[in-house]
Design goal:
The protein has 303 residues and is an alpha+beta fold. Helices cover 19% and strands 34% of the residues. It is built from 6 helices and 18 strands. Strand 8 and strand 9 form a beta hairpin. It comes from Duganella vulcania.
Length: 303
């Protein structure tokens, strides 16, 4: 009997020791890839703040953030000029309705999230991340919330998505979601040089949505636009003015593809670059919003 009791006691001690070793070992802790749903390069695609959200961000600030990059790594969190070294991400899962009311005093029903939300905070406290799947997350910024998509993914979490027929149709080279990355203009005209320069600065990073249903960027909103395509000789089409001058609008070849709409004219250069001429005569270059950052396609320089 004594030997049996001794063996049982040893067995119990062994179980306790094993439990402690599993708890404190790397196997018992969260795996190293537990943050895989937030790590990587991201781009902001949409403002998703619910009614009642309060922030010091202005409407211009919100527009500026659309299209901006966000970098999340174990060593550095970087977004909107915030940098957090050794962010030490801490996560937990909350009831969505309870969490957003308790922490933000807002109703989460308007946000693109489920009944349970993963909350990821960092030690700097500037931003909170809410991963919704491997290619989408929501990030808080000064009381407002923005949806982000992983750079290089095939995610379609933008206000404008294109159907299969649109992606294969005559306007496939312009349909999609773009972001403005450069501008050019002539100082003459009804708008002064200073006015156009200010407008160009505001437009940088703004999204452009082009589909069969609408052509939209900033205050330019065309519903059910008519796209009139033609091939034109550059010098003839621009009547020999500044737009045809050597060194200006360098992406435009001698033979242009011109797509005219009632909200401006689009000049597709290739699948990764378009130029947009607005009704005031300003030109904006735009690249795909979700292009892989390894792709170094760039448009006009920002003057």
């Amino acid at each position: 009997m004594g030997a049996i009791k001794m063996n049982s006691l040893q067995y119990l001690r062994a179980l306790i020791a094993l439990s402690f070793s599993l708890y404190f070992s790397p196997m018992g802790a969260q795996p190293a890839d537990s943050d895989a749903d937030i790590l990587g390069k991201w781009r902001i695609v949409k403002h998703v703040s619910p009614t009642g959200a309060t922030s010091s961000l202005t409407e211009r600030d919100v527009r500026r953030l659309i299209g901006q990059p966000m970098s999340v790594s174990a060593e550095l969190f970087e977004f909107n000029n915030h940098q957090c070294a050794r962010p030490d991400y801490r996560r937990n899962v909350e009831d969505t309705v309870d969490y957003f009311y308790r922490e933000w005093r807002v109703n989460s029903d308007e946000m693109p999230i489920g009944a349970r939300i993963t909350v990821v905070e960092n030690r700097c406290g500037n931003n909170v991340l809410y991963p919704t799947n491997k290619d989408h997350l929501i990030v808080s910024e000064d009381g407002f919330f923005f949806e982000a998509v992983r750079v290089g993914s095939n995610a379609a979490a933008t206000p404008e998505s294109t159907s299969t027929s649109e992606r294969k149709g005559a306007n496939a080279d312009i349909f999609g979601t773009w972001t403005i990355d450069g501008a050019d203009w002539q100082g003459s005209g009804k708008d002064s040089e200073a006015t156009k320069k200010s407008r160009a600065a505001i437009y940088m990073g703004m999204p452009v949505y082009i589909s069969a249903r609408r052509f939209f960027y900033n205050e330019n909103q065309c519903k059910n636009p008519t796209y009139k395509r033609s091939r034109q000789q550059k010098t003839v089409y621009f009547h020999g003015d500044w737009r045809a001058a050597k060194g200006r609008l360098p992406f435009l070849q001698n033979m242009l593809t011109v797509v005219e709409t009632n909200c401006g004219t689009i000049y597709p250069i290739n699948r990764k670059l378009i130029l947009i001429e607005d009704r005031s005569g300003m030109f904006f270059s735009a690249v795909p919003l979700l292009q892989d950052e390894r792709d170094n396609t760039h448009g006009l320089s920002a003057r």
